Amino acid sequence: CSCQQQRHYANGIQRTYITFNDLRNKNRSYTKKELVGYSMQAMYNVVSDVSNYYKFVPYVKRSHVHSYDDDGFKADLIIGFPPLNEAYTSRVTLEPMTMVKSECHDGRLFNYLLNEWRFSPGLKDIPNSCVLDFKVAFRFRSLLHSNFANIFFDLICDQMENAFIEEVRRRSGPPSIRSHVLESKRS
């Protein structure tokens, strides 16, 4: 997030102020590397199931897959978090069991949107584990939309990632190990 909380103490009273860094920046990104207690296949199966995103991903109101080819497909999505709704088409590239990448270049709210999930083997002695590399990056068309989203960006990214983990849990049962964040960066 480009906002920071600052705490000031005066007369024993704690006050928290939120400050905003660089309100002119239309680019946002979030990356996270995490060891999870699910297999690469279980994670891939959920993330590549774009046609059902509307059932379990927050803010996705509609998801329709079409135009299949050797590398993946196109998907029409409508996302919404009041007061904004955005309809766009993504090009989804699949590398079975290892990567799902979704890119959009024609959104009304943004010039560019990237969601990328990479899966690699987890712990050797725990086959139902994998390392998940998750990335979201986008560039808003409007500074107003960028600054509005800036307020909720961290929350939205966390909710999205958690929705996929919860869907894997729903389909596959409890994780084999507790998740461990290995690396996380927001800008």
UniProtKB/TrEMBL annotation:
InterPro entries given in the database record: COQ10-like, COQ10_START, START-like_dom_sf
Molecular function GO labels: ubiquinone binding
Domain of life: Eukaryota
One Gene Ontology term, aspect cellular component: mitochondrion
Sequence ranges assigned to domain Coenzyme Q-binding protein COQ10 START in this UniProt record: 36-164
Biological process annotations from GO: cellular respiration
Subunit and partners: Interacts with coenzyme Q.
Function: Required for the function of coenzyme Q in the respiratory chain. May serve as a chaperone or may be involved in the transport of Q6 from its site of synthesis to the catalytic sites of the respiratory complexes.
Family indicated by similarity: Belongs to the COQ10 family.
Name this protein carries in UniProt: Coenzyme Q-binding protein COQ10 START domain-containing protein
Organism per entry: Drosophila rubida
